[in-house]
Amino acid sequence: MAAARVRSEGHTEQPQAEQLGVVRASDEGQWNAQTLTLALQQAMTSLGGLAALVHRCDSATGSLHLAAARGLLPETAEAWADLDTVQDVAPTRAVRRGGYVWVCGDSLGIGAAGTAALPLPGADGPVGVLSVLTAGPAEPDDEQRSFLGAVAAWAAARLEGLPGTAPGLTSAAGSEQTVRMGELTAALAEAVTSRDVVQAVADHVLPPFCADGLVVWLIEGDRVDVVGAAGYPEEFLSLLDRVPLTETASVTDVLATGTPRFIGSRDEFRRRYPTMAIVAEASPKNAWALLPVIASGRAIGVCVVSFTRERVFSDEERTLLTALGGLVGQALERARLYDVEHARAQELQRGLLPRELPRLPMACAAARYLPAGRGEEVGGDWYDLIPLSGGRVAMVIGDVMGHGITEAVTMGRLRTAVRTLADLDLPPDELIGHLNDLVSDLGDDFYATCLYAVFDPTTRTCTLCLAGHPPPVIVHPDGTVLCPRLAADPPLGAAEPPFEIHELHLAEESLLVLCTDGLVESATRDIDQGLAQLCRILAQAVPRIPDLWSGGQCDDVGRLEDLCDAVVSALLPAREQTDDDAALFIAHTHGTAADDVATCSLPDDPRAAGQARRYVRKQLAIWGLDDLMVTTELLVSELVGNVIRHAKGPLRLRLLRSRSLICEVYDGSLSTPRIRHASYTDEGGRGLQLVAALSRRWGARYLYDGKCIWTEQSLPAGGNAKRPLG
Question: What's the predicted TM-score (pTM) here?
Answer without folding.
Answer: 0.63
